[in-house]
Write a structure and sequence with these properties.
Helix content is about 25%, strand content about 15%. With about 350 residues, it is of the alpha+beta class. Strands 1-2-10-7-12-5-4-3 form an eight-stranded mixed β-sheet. The chain has a four-stranded antiparallel β-sheet with strand order 6-11-8-9, with no helix packed on it. The longest helix is centred in the middle third of the chain and has 26 residues.
């Protein structure tokens, strides 16, 4: 019976519903009704920021810095144009990611892992066979900085994966550093505040594939979550990402597609650094019944064991007291390995000081 098959939690990669193109959604993928997406998507009011002004003199840079700081304080999410990464580099990355997901299962299994600490891993749900709910996606995650330290561990197939994804990783990290410079400047900390801290930083690439889902109104590609990073930059082949852009109505809205634009998520690290002035954006991935969506998220954090703490410059003994505990990227991975975030458990919540 369909329900019996879907209710089993004993999954093996390559035997999941999304990879077998099932014509129905098994029970374990069915999201509780209170959290199900709508098939009639409202469009999010997401600011688009032209980064060209960051490189055109003090007056124009100051305006862009103000714009970035404003959206980080209110939504924690924006789209960027004139970011400096060529269309050919972006298309090359999406192309090899798609080609990887189309490989035979035996080839993808070479980098299969359930260990969230693994530097390269192919998988399906957040923790395969462990989480209560499964999600309609497959993914390839790998570390990317320093590139020379990790690239030899990346998949050998498709043959151009390392070259094309490597080119994108290098350029998107440079972009992330430029954005973080503007973000700390917007906090009054100066443009070089993160410069030394990111020398030993971590870059994680998460290439996600969301196959067509027969009933996209009852399943999700990813549950609501925030990213434990300083920032995340996302490249996508088609719309599917939803955020809550207006705290007054708490509604999920889909992020519109702007040709050539990249999406920027403020992560938990920056919320902690800013003592809550910047907001880590809550987001989720929805599905489509007709097309496969591919996204590439580049997450940028401090070094694996380097603690992110609130900037002392933003604290005082009166109304600006410390609101967050410090933590590292490894602390987050340890939390992820022992908690089910599909049940709404948030690492950021554990850092908040009441």
């Amino acid at each position: 019976m369909e329900g019996d098959e879907g209710s089993s939690s004993k999954f093996t990669i390559g035997n999941t519903a999304q990879e077998r193109s099932l014509s129905y959604v098994p029970d374990c993928y069915k999201i509780p009704s209170s959290g199900r997406p709508s098939l009639v998507h409202e469009i999010a009011n997401v600011p688009g920021i032209d980064l060209g002004g960051l490189r055109k003199g003090a007056v124009q840079r100051a305006k862009v810095v103000r714009d970035i700081a404003n959206v980080c304080r209110h939504i924690g999410f924006f789209q960027i144009m004139n970011h400096g990464i060529s269309e050919s580099v972006m298309e090359g990355a999406l192309e090899v990611a798609s080609e990887f997901f189309e490989l035979p299962m035996e080839e993808k299994k070479k980098v299969m892992s359930k260990d969230v600490h693994s530097p390269v891993r192919y998988g399906t749900s957040i923790k395969d066979g462990v989480d209560k709910f499964q999600f309609w996606r497959v993914f390839l995650k790998h570390y990317a900085y320093p590139l020379s330290h990790w690239i030899h561990l990346w998949p050998l197939n498709p043959p151009s994966y390392r070259e094309k994804m490597g080119n994108y990783c290098t350029e998107v990290r440079n972009l992330a550093l430029e954005l973080m410079s503007a973000m700390t400047e917007g906090l009054g900390l100066g443009s070089t505040y993160m410069q030394d801290k990111m020398e030993e930083g971590v870059q994680v690439i998460a290439a996600n594939c969301y196959p067509p889902c027969p009933s996209p109104e009852i399943a999700l590609g990813l549950p609501p979550h925030s990213d434990y990073s300083c920032i995340t930059i996302v490249l996508q082949s088609s719309p599917g990402l939803e955020i809550k852009d207006d705290p007054r109505d708490n509604k999920w809205r889909i992020v519109p597609q702007i040709k050539g634009a990249l999406q920027v998520h403020v992560g938990d690290h920056f919320e902690v650094l800013s003592n809550g002035l910047y907001k880590s954006v809550l987001h989720r991935a929805t599905l489509n019944s007709d097309i496969t969506r591919v996204s590439i998220a580049s997450l940028h954090s401090l070094g694996m064991d380097q603690k992110m703490a609130t900037a002392s410059e933003l604290l005082d003994d009166d109304e600006h007291r410390r609101r967050y505990k410090e933590s590292s990227f490894r602390d987050f991975l340890n939390f992820l390995s022992s908690n089910d975030i599909t049940q709404g458990k948030s690492f950021l919540a554990t850092l908040k000081i009441s």
